[in-house]
Amino acid sequence: MASFFHHLFCFLLLQLPLFISAQTYNNITLGTSISNLQENPYWTSPSGDFAFGFYPHQNLFLLATWYSKIPVRTIVWTANDGKPVERGAKIQLISNGVLSLTTSNGTEIWKAEAIDNSQVAYAAMLNTGNFVLFTAESRFVWATFDNPTDTIMPNQVLDLGKKLSSRLTKEDYTIGRFELVLQGDGNLEFYTIARPTDSRNDPYYGSNINDNGTQLVFNQSGYIYITLKSGGVHSLSSARPLSTEDYYQRATLDYDGVFRQYTYTKVSANGTWPESWSTSWSLPQDICTSNFGEFGSGVCGFNSYCRLAEDQRPVCLCLPGYSYLDPTNTFKGCIPNFTQQACGTVEPRIVDGFEMQRLPSTNWPMGDYERFLSMNEEWCSETCLKDCLCAAAHIGVRGCWLKKFPLSRGYMTSGTGVSLIKVANSSAERIPRTAYNGNIEEDKKWIIPGSILLAISVVVNLLFLFLVIYIGCYKKKTKRQTYTRPFGGNLRSFTYKELNEATDGFKEQLGKGAFSTVYKGELKSDSGCLVAVKRLDKVVEGNDKEFQAEVSAIGKTNQKYLVQLLGFCNEEAHRLLVYEFMKNGSLENFLFGSLRLKWNQRIQIALGIARGLAYLHEDCSSQIIHCDIKPQNILLDESYVARISDFGLAKLLKSDQTRTTTGIRGTRGYVAPEWFRNMPITAKVDVYSFGIMLLEILFCRKNVELKVGDEEIEILSDLAYEYYQQKELHLLLVNDEEAKNDGKSLESMVMVALWCIQEDPSLRPSMKKVTQMLEGAVEISMPPSPNPSSFSNISPIV
């Protein structure tokens, strides 16, 4: 009874807001602390999506990170090995830069500190769900993403040797029996652990990659894959994930040993939120029948068997005549309710107190100690009953198999024959059972009504879940497919004939540049997938291998804010690139014409472009400098998510193919000053171009406005600095009340842009720093004039 009302109380508690309100912190300075005695014992991310602090749990508290905006408040990281703390505990960023968890009497029980002995200056809860310790130079020196527990999220990676550890049960966050590890050879493997040690049993799942893997990546687009040493990727699922703009996403190694990717909508439907997360995919697909090797109990404990429920989750059931070792943890196994058959010194005989019970479609393949060929079920049953060592028998197409106690790695599935379980009959001696929390006999009378209520609850939840999935699938099917990547992460080599047919003879032109023309195409061989085919008119002459190497480098990129390269054609004189199709065309169409995007959309587009450039500059295997950032090269997908196009093409162009001066890459108005000064060209040229484009995005006007005869009359970047100094940026906005009403954000983003367009490249921040400034993760200092008379002694922001 107590157990039933406990679960009911927990269910009702989750329907209530966790706390009345929360205080948002950007930077958590040295000396700052929170106690679980406070009303709001946690720090939130600037977006409010995540919280880090004390999470109330069964009259105690977990130091954790969780989703804080949605009703289903889900923990994604825990400190202190998931062990809860009592009231009076405190978490503090102490003066030496150590994040310290102490009990009510001041005893330190957990801490986080810089891995390289760097001096920590502050901490922050980021919008990605990553809680980070920073140096004064804003360098990460410790992060929850680098020390995961059972979950990874978008923008998170697992390096070689890193692991996820499941929690013990649904409600117990201490370390459980399952581990996910990216091995040194790059293969992803799942293990059961021989507790109480850390010894791993044989893997029950392996990625079996022939090529060496380097990282497990959960990218911003929602794809989870293993990057390969050769440059390709090994996807864990071929299904296209839902948008991370519209759905929260996580991937968790659950307490049942299954690795699942989950989604949850960010917007309620008519004020109604889903009651649970939806599962996108899982590995292994059937954990019950997975091969757990020679040792360990498998997914369920000893003397039980595993069966997949309708939601494909494993359910652990006891054998006839057995009961759960721990009713609160059905994965822990079962024990017999009777005294087992004793072995004497005389010839084994049938014992009156025992009988064989039939259990179809089950098997315990690792418990055999004897086999008899060509025997029927009756003979097999009688033989086991006579054998005092036999706990069960299995009769199948290959004969009769006798099994010893305890039985392990059992499962139920069709076509596995019939198992015969030896149990005590009514005359046998029964063993009284004692529960972990008192006399179980008192609670047994509540098992049947409790089970009925639980079953009803499960059925209702499953029906609701299936309805949500059905509606989602139906809507997805009604949309015309505009993008798919059927090539499994590797670029596809097209023939010229294929692309000629796909574009109907290069009929529908989407755009034209100085070195290429883009056509709309439809790959009829791939379910009518729409693509954009770019025909390069002037490419580097020479070795075909060089062309394919450069194209391969572009193809290795895989990030939400980049237009994905699907394949290429390198046939005779034909050089073509095949990209995913972007439904809404270029950003230029929505900035300088009548189709103006909303203010919040423009902010998200700017942030997306920054993230994409940061990826090209810092996260690719070899740095990619775009060299031609401008609105025409930013495409928008069907959800108006910005995608950078034409990146990595600089090496494919002839050296004299430019838009302005010979030797200069880029477009007038966006070209960094160092191009004209014979200075080394670095990724900072992209930062400059981004800064110019950011101003155009904010004010929906071109950087250079021209009169008839190409006489320059106004330069937006100059005006932006002038109006910023005068605190009159709103005067640059025309018919944009949303932007005017958000003056603080406008000023912050203009400050970022002004730092980006500094004449001295060393003063410009990196794109990673730009992204952090736009996200609000770091403070933005006052920018100097972008065009000083000479390079000054101003300190760079990086």
Automatic annotation (TrEMBL):
Family of the protein in this entry: Belongs to the protein kinase superfamily. Ser/Thr protein kinase family.
Listed GO MF terms: ATP binding; carbohydrate binding; protein serine kinase activity; protein serine/threonine kinase activity
Principal location class: membrane
Residues bound to ATP: 534
Subcellular location: Membrane
Domain Protein kinase: 504-778
Catalytic reactions of this protein: L-seryl-[protein] + ATP = O-phospho-L-seryl-[protein] + ADP + H(+); L-threonyl-[protein] + ATP = O-phospho-L-threonyl-[protein] + ADP + H(+)
Protein name: Receptor-like serine/threonine-protein kinase
Gene3D superfamilies: 2.90.10.30, Bulb-type lectin domain (2.90.10.10), Phosphorylase Kinase, domain 1 (3.30.200.20), Transferase(Phosphotransferase) domain 1 (1.10.510.10)
Transmembrane segments: 446-471
E.C. code: 2.7.11.1
Cross-referenced CDD domains: B_lectin
Organism: Aquilegia coerulea (Rocky mountain columbine)
Keywords, in A-Z order: ATP-binding, Disulfide bond, EGF-like domain, Glycoprotein, Kinase, Lectin, Membrane, Nucleotide-binding, Receptor, Serine/threonine-protein kinase, Signal, Transferase, Transmembrane, Transmembrane helix
UniProt GO cellular component terms: membrane
Domain Bulb-type lectin residues, every copy: 28-146
